[in-house]
Amino acid sequence: MRKAIILAICSIILFCGVAAGIVWGIRNVSLPASTKISIRYTDAESVHPFDVRGLMPGTVASRRFEIEGRRSGMLSLTFEEDGEVGLVPYLQVKISENGKTLFNGAMSELLPQTLNFSFDGSAMILIEYGLPLDTGNEAQKQGCDIRLNFKLNPESES
Predict the structure, then answer these.
(1) Which residues of 67-83 are buried (b: 16+ CB within 10 A; e: fewer)?
(2) Is the pTM of this model over 0.85?
């Protein structure tokens, strides 16, 4: 009897550990460190790949871009297809600049689109992306290759 109780307790602990590992793995995607971008001159561009693979329904991940520059102006962020785009119709994206939401919606609405915002020498762009829980099997093994183009445009003179 005592052996059965110990075996049951060990089984419960093992089950909880495996379940926690699965949930942790699904909810947290390994994130790259934030990307630092230096834009020193007007009309300077900085292009970065934004590739998404291995997302499961309910998974949310993010990428952060820290931008520094010597000039002020309008900073544009353009999203362009750069290869596989099978996951694009399913991805939901939220883009914010220094905490202010610039876009919140489907990735398919961003291709090709440019977001513009005032730039005073530094900015932090956060791109949060994920798949809704109700995403079906058709999204399995799909990927998304996007190119992000940051460009500093001169301030327009009035």
Answers:
(1) bebebebebbbbbbeee
(2) no
